[in-house]
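Recap from last week: sequence in, structure out.
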Amino acid sequence: MKRGENRRLRGEDLKSGKAAIAAGRLLRPSDLGLAASLGIASLRVQRKLKIAILSSGDELSPLGQTLDVGSIYDSNRYSLTGLLNRLNLEIIDCGIVRDDSVSLKAASKADVLISSGGVSVGEADFTKQIMQELGDVGFWKIAMRPGRPMAFGMLKPVEGSSRKTLFFGLPGNPVAVMVTFYQFVRSALLQLNGASQTEPQMTQAIAEAPIRKKPGRTEFQRAIVWGVA
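Predicted structure tokens:
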């Protein structure tokens, strides 16, 4: 055995005066182990945001129910639940909200409200109208595909509260829901919850076939990515 083997020097893992866990970091299992190794039994963290989610549309049916003519199963709430669980946020599932103003108003009691459906130009889409009644519409419709019919705004505080609620009105198309979530909602939620790293990891790839798009519009394509051994 050589001299100095099988030992760790002071400051090898963490230098004196350096922050062990910086503010704004999303805690990982290794961070918890590091805190414990320093004798720290508790950490001060941000309160989890309360995120209310709902699906809007008279054509939607819950799982387990026989579909009527012209109906489809609600899948977007399950996608949103999975996306939000990755961020470790508190989820309030408001279920399927029918196309009426009373139901939509009742769902605005959280830090952030995320809806899917009800933001297109159909006669039964009340989301934009209710937004104008209950708060301010930041924007409605974006130059992006998929995801053009998307709304964002701020809802006024409900009775007995001074807290305003951010509102994201996502499209009804399942793929558009996930694209708009990653492009707009995810980073906003992380920043609101105090995280300093909010952008998803990006990488460059070469497409196997040419991709065409209309000018003046951002477009996203689904793809399969693989590496070369």
